[in-house]
Amino acid sequence: QVQLVESGGGLVQAGGSLRLSCAASGGTSRTYYMGWFRQAPGREREFLAEIDWRGLTKRADSVKDRFYISRDNAKNTVYLQMNSLKVEDTAVYYCAARRVSTPEYEYWGQGTQVTVSS
After folding, report:
1. What are phi and psi of 40, to 5 degrees?
2. DSSP code of 27?
3. Span 38-46, mean pLDDT?
4. In angstroms, how far is the first alpha carbon of the chain from the final one?
5. Which residues does 44 contact at the CB level (< 8 Å), separation at least 6?
6. DSSP 3-state helix, strand, coil percentages of the chain (rounded to 5)?
């Protein structure tokens, strides 16, 4: 069982930056795919980015020029660097993990709120 705890959300002005962190514990989380998702009110959950244990990344086209995912395997922590934030980036951001053999994300954090003001 993998436990995930996000941090780093908050209120930021449009054009600003935030870095979200996700601390993982339990299981063999170091070899898991780690991903970031977000969900805005009234909208479906949206994939943002994922990273594997080797550091290979994939990002959604909608954010790939502004959001960057990274991980520190020694700290069992994955990060999401968000730059040039827009009001429409306001959402609850979730960290998730999945095993290599599993296409769907299995473990989820509680989420952290990001609010971008104009």
Report:
1. -95, 155
2. T
3. 96
4. 40
5. none
6. 5, 50, 45
